[in-house]
Design goal:
By secondary structure, the chain is α/β, with parallel strands linked by helices. 50% of the residues lie in helices and 11% in strands. The protein folds into two domains: 174 residues, NAD(P)-binding Rossmann-like Domain (Rossmann fold), CATH 3.40.50.720; 143 residues, N-(1-d-carboxylethyl)-l-norvaline Dehydrogenase, domain 2 (Orthogonal Bundle). It has an eight-stranded mixed β-sheet with strand order 3-2-1-4-5-6-7-8, sandwiched between helices. It starts with a strand and ends in a 12-residue tail after the last helix.
Amino acid sequence: MERIGIVGAGAWGTALALALSRAGQRALIWAHEPETVEAINRRHENPLFLPGIALDPALEATGDLARTAACGIVLLATPAQHLRATATALAPALDAATPLVICAKGIEEGTGALMSEVVAASLPRNAIAVLSGPTFAGEVARGLPTAITLAAPDAALGRRLAQSIGSKTFRPYVSDDVPGAQVGGAIKNVVAIACGIVVGRKLGDNARAALITRGLAEMVRLALAKGGRAETLMGLSGLGDLTLTANGLQSRNHSLGVALGQGESLQAILAARRSVAEGVSSARAAAALASRLQVEMPIVAAVDAILHRGAPIDTVIEELLSRPLRAETAITP
């Protein structure tokens, strides 16, 4: 039994702590909010981020980041846009031999960096792996069957981590395609917003299926440009995560898109939420990264235009529908 630290006590971090408990591990979770630490330790619940879920009484929370850094394995489950600050704060207390598992999905605004690139900049000595795939936090927390990709450049490390965190209902499949797994996890959130807009605008299931399929092609193109492999995007961290997030109202990104499609403003939607919809930031970051790498991603660009450039939804839809007809291949622009 190995002490495993989790940095971030949102819905996903808390769900991961419960999954670790079921795997027979001792989990220590770091929370930014003192009230969350108190709720987990005294009442065995996290009402702010995972209401209605009873937590394992053995699960311990702390507000001391150094205690979490001292664990044998550390999972990073903070929001993507806060990951650089988190990694920087961990650096003084983290042993170089401690492996890190990145559980955040996104692309950093301003730099266009994948999460592994963000962490490596602050913690260059530590081995890094990425956890990504079709996971609604509530279902993981309740112990429902879940399969997920665990990508690590070192195969032995990947197998060790899979054995440490895996259980009968939480099944990691090991990959060595770290960039591919991350692109899938980031871009599926952007495509999910687009699919939500389709639902909110009542454009039909045909349109949503088309967006999912062509969104997958955009994910493949960007993954290839970042050194990933196309087949990775056909697995759990690509197609699996995309189909889950683009179809389920449990998805924060999909539900945000539905609200946009129904005429709500982005500011009003975000103001009413405590949880983070990673696709909002990733849309801008991915659009800028695609432009820099000369990768054509019209769906990502359309979502970025709606969210951040004031483009009217109906105008953007008309522009997408007016694109030239061409032969279909998996990565055709």
